[in-house]
Amino acid sequence: MRLVFLGPPGAGKGTQAAKLADHLGVPRISTGDILRRNVADGTDLGKRAKGYMEAGTLVPDDLVIEMTKRRLAEPDAKKGFILDGFPRTIAQAEVLAKLTPLDAVVDFYLEPEELIKRNSGRRVCPKCEAVYHVLSNAPRKPGICDRCGSTVVTRPDDREEVVRTRIETYENQTSPLIQYYKDRGLLREVYASGLIDEVVLRVREALSP
Ligand code: AP5
Of the residues 111, 137, 167, which should be mutated to test ligand 1's pocket, given the most ligand atoms within 8 Å of the CB? Predict the structure, then answer.
């Protein structure tokens, strides 16, 4: 399966992509995670991306496109992939269309106030990138990653004012992709409210032939 997961910040794309990628045996390719790794490692790309990410705006197309092309060329992506957070502009979608065909694009939608709650309660593991929520998806031992035992942290772009900018950025620059993929017959809409496992079932149903 070659899939794209689309949706506003905090809708649950990453959570669902991780589960489905395990189920399908394909890699989850999160451009947000790759960029955060570059910021943490202080690479040239990370230095150029950091300011945009902290402000809640998009990293310029040329940087993200080059990075994603390289990732898609790795051997594990040959058997399929879930792209989580790419494309985010029509220009990125046009490049992706030239690189690979897609089987479907899943668009997650959720009310803005729910998005704020999901982002503000999110905690992430800086070491293994596991994602938690203080209320709906808490680690077994408060503040400690279940998988690797590191202390979980709040993402710098999860402050409420930055989340609001990220939602605006999504509406202005990314949401036109909904019509773009509808026109190409690839769009599957999934309501992202409810328990994580309920959304898992909706995703499977949306993708069933
Ligand atoms: P990125 O990391 O992709 O951020 P995002 O799109 O804003 O998405 P999030 O990671 O915030 O949310 P999500 O939908 O994955 O939700 P999650 O599963 O974590 O990008 C960060 C930045 O990088 C961008 O702002 C931009 O600057 C840059 N960037 C990345 N890609 C780019 C691109 N292509 N072009 C240009 N710039 C790019 O869930 C959220 C929370 O809710 C978690 O706490 C989770 O535990 C909880 N949760 C999940 N599902 C449920 C549920 N069903 N019920 C209750 N809680 C739930």
Answer: 137
